[in-house]
Amino acid sequence: MILPLRLESVAYAAGGRTLIHPLSLELQAGASTIVLGANGAGKSVLMRLMHGLLRPTGGRILWSDPEPARVRRLQAMVFQRPVLLRRSVAENVLYALRVTGVADARRRTDEALREVGLAHAASQPARTLSGGEQQRLALARAWALHPELLFLDEPTANLDPGATREIETLIKAFDAAGTKIVMSTHNLGQARRLGDEVLFLHQGRLAERAPVERFFSQPQSPEAAAFIKGEVPWL
Amino acid sequence: MQVFTYELWPIVGLSLRVSLSAVGIATALGLPLGAALAVARFPGRSAVNVVLNALMGLPPVVVGLCVYLLLSRAGPLGSLGLLFTPGAMVIAQTVLILPIIAALVRQAVEDAWQEYDEQLRSLGLGRLRGSLTVLYDIRFSLFTAVLAGLGRACAEVGAVIIVGGNIDGVTRVMTTAIALETSKGDLGLALGLGLVLITIVLLLNAAAYLLRSAAQRRYG
Predict the structure, then answer these.
(1) CA B34 to chain centre
(2) CATH number of A83-181
(3) What's the pLDDT score for residue B219?
(4) Interface with B, mutate which of A50, A86, A92, A95 (most B CBs under 10 A)
């Protein structure tokens, strides 16, 4: 178990600008966490700090497992724009399994492709898939790694409603299989459908953290109230 | 036609042998060099890149002169006895096109790296393994860099004429033969040789293009 994950006064600055002000929080296994906030609020930066793609310029990130290699192997990230190698669909998944040193990569690849409904396209070049299929392949790649924690950075931002629904179904399946979900999104409906709790960022600060229902019905911070009102004025 | 009675094939053969050898060596050196420059972060990196880009425009005669000085009897590598041999021509052309291949590879890898970097690091790959993956993934785009080097090598005359000496049957290649026939006033022959040269370069590029588009259909 690499969770819970603890952030102690984690801060991040780049190019003379503070993108994340000192921020402390703890993420537990189980409940799906949605990271909300306006553009530039620091959602992506926060997730990249947690995932280890960015190194905090202040504070500490503590996993419950002290072994860095295990921490790395037990988490995965799916990006807004999937990055696929110029190889077949199956080889994209196989590649991820091989570099992480997983045994029986073949079987896990078949399993993961079946899970996301791409088994029929296994030998097709990955880059010829449609946008929605590419994102499903990115999810299959993450799925095959059997992560304990999955970060998703606006995974449906570039997709049409149909593809978005498919991705949401898969994220629910991840959740049901016991993977901790941490996802940023602009889609408030999606936040409600998939989330258990909300982390609301405003200008690089954690303005509010609340269970998803309470966040939308009774936001505690004025920033969150304004954000919800701005995004869904009829509420 | 005089072109066909001319001792053409040995000259064409030597041209290709020299230029392809130079391209082979420059590729073997330029791929890792360009990839390393694309991925590594060190002080003075931009300066190195500017210099490398500038070296793409190295005048062949200057390269020829420098290699000549190195290989001449009194030069530091004079004892190798390479001057006025095809070996010297390969060395000169390698020096000439190494910056071209390295600089174009650097640009291609750097662009791809921006796209792949986070995903590869997310999978736990370090820079070395990551850059090998990127190189392999864009291998067909790297063709363009290699072809640019080959084009330059086949077309240049300044370097090979200085270090090779245009010796009939030993170091005479297409471009030096054209220069010679032109100065002798045999313009028809020079033009014919020029057409042969252009045709060969065209065929090489067409083959590379076909290979690349087939690969693109196959790998996306």
Answers:
(1) 14
(2) 3.40.50.300
(3) 77
(4) A86
